Amino acid sequence: MGVDKYVKKLNTLQLVELITFAQLEQLDGLRDISNSLHDPKFNRAINLESISFSQISRRLRDLSPQFIRLLFSYLTTKVGQEIGLVNLRNAVGRIYLIDSTTISLCLTQYRWAEFRQTKGGVKLHLRLRFYEEEVLPDKAVITPARPADKTQMDVLVVEEKDALNVFDRGYVDYKKFDRYCEEGIRFASRLKGNAIVKVIADLPVNSESKVKKDQMVYLGKDGVTKMKHPLRLITTEDTQGQPVVIVTNDLQLKAEELSEIYRNRWQIELFFKWIKQHLQVKHFYGKSEQAVENQLFIALITYCLMVILQLKAGYRGPLLTIKRLIRTCLYEPFTFFVQTLHLKHKRSSQGRRRIDHEGVYREIVRQVLAGEADYLNDVTYDPLVL
């Protein structure tokens, strides 16, 4: 793509490695990244002896986000190949979770990121692939925070017949829902509280399940927003016993299955929380729109690389363990990393031992009654240590 055409120092992959390293180490600024090259092991690893913080800033600002997006897309495909296409499918087909998260920015420094009158922000719109209780980034779009979530539906919704798109109330759009019904695009979403609902049929429900209602309905106001196609409305409960209203155009799956699938939508919220806590996505190394987009995509790339490490190492534990061990074994052979990852730690102690006070008391009473309690007059003897 010609991204290194006029680059004399710090090529694109070295830049990605630097920012990835900074995110894993959660370095605060560009000077910290530049100073990390004082470690001879690190500068040998990426074949770069030194670089100034201003050069890192310029490369991050000038690098085309198109290349980083392409690298991210390549890695998501690579992870899919490692997992296997069969393993990526669920019993109901392919499940995609769609949502966005807003990252606050200072409006005076990021004027392009308009959000509110005195506040800036950037929004990461994301599609995750859900499989075997795990999630995998699949598609990402980055915009200023102001545009509504549903403006990105055309980019994020998967239109294949075996795909089920799961999203929240921010994506409710009756016109798009009608098009999805016409073209056989499956979806499931929460319904807004002020929605106008006309019930046309009640479907049978299992009295022992959490599903309270299963109905066929029309949504919208007559002559204004009313949909052409009927939808299925399922009323269920969350873990706190609060009602949850789900609307879908899938008429084949059981209400309990759809209810459980929608509960799994929470996985995307956990993903956002994870990358905000463990990768550097709340503090940016550049001020321009391109620099911010590049850094967010590199964070997703870092996540994918850790998933690849996890798969190649055959490790089924939490990804956070991978992240922590990378920092420890960064310059060690991969075989050493795998051995350390699978090492079963032995307990060096049995923990705090609880004293059976009642049992000690009974033993002392027995000794007193048997005339064996002369030792009680000896102050050097501790009757509790037997």
UniProtKB/TrEMBL annotation:
Q: Which NCBIfam families match?
A: transpos_IS4_1
Gene Ontology biological process terms in this record: DNA transposition
The UniProt keywords, alphabetically, are: DNA recombination, DNA-binding, Transposition
Report the Pfam families cross-referenced here: DDE_Tnp_1
Q: What InterPro entries does the annotation carry?
A: RNaseH-like_sf (IPR012337), Transpos_IS4 (IPR047952), Transposase_11 (IPR002559)
Coiled coil ranges (UniProt) are none
| Family, per entry | Belongs to the transposase 11 family.
Keyword DNA-binding belongs to the record:
yes
Instruction: Give the GO molecular function terms.
Output: DNA binding; transposase activity
Q: What is this protein called?
A: Transposase DDE domain protein
Domain Transposase IS4-like, by residue range, is 93-305
Q: Which SUPFAM superfamilies does the entry mention?
A: Ribonuclease H-like
Under the heading PANTHER family, the entry gives: TRANSPOSASE INSL FOR INSERTION SEQUENCE ELEMENT IS186A-RELATED
